[in-house]
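Re-running the complex after MR caught last week's input typo. The corrected sequence lines follow. Everything else is unchanged.
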Amino acid sequence: DAGVTQSPTHLIKTRGQQVTLRCSPISGHKSVSWYQQVLGQGPQFIFQYYEKEERGRGNFPDRFSARQFPNYSSELNVNALLLGDSALYLCASSLVDNYGYTFGSGTRLTVV
Amino acid sequence: RKEVEQDPGPFNVPEGATVAFNCTYSNSASQSFFWYRQDCRKEPKLLMSVYSSGNEDGRFTAQLNRASQYISLLIRDSKLSDSATYLCVVTAEGGFKTIFGAGTRLFVKA
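Corrected-run output:
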């Protein structure tokens, strides 16, 4: 079975642009969450979705948004990119909430 | 105060050593607890869940003390392949928010 897949793997954007990151969960997993990880720190929680509904949101500005589709895949959107948004963006999926997550290999975003 | 705090590390240990990682969390309503392992430039991988009754998987033992809001991970007979960053993870807000510690780096040397 395929694991959690994320696309693209790498991305370079200019300040002020918008970006969309995509995630396909493990088949059958209905819960998807997104994280931002900068070098030397643990992943920071951005969003959690379950059955297409937002169930949790971390301390990120409104420039960050996400959605989950009927097939449980998910997109993370970031508007008005800042240099500080440069990071590894990780997606993770789980069968149910409150259970251990399986992570994708991430999208490395560089904002220049 | 950070929501999840871990030993800053790094820990440098010889092969065969026993090493213990500590983690504290601030939200007494936290529900689920995990240890993840992250290799350099890789994604985190679930190592084990943590329960009040303790949880053991081979050389790894995890323990939760709810009263003290403290989580531990013990690695016995360390291997070179155990070298990684160990992340303490807590869920809050009904399990709808997952909080990672900053991680503790472990180096196991021959």
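None of the earlier attempt is carried over here. The longest strand of chain B covers residues 84-92. The radius of gyration of chain B is 13 Å.
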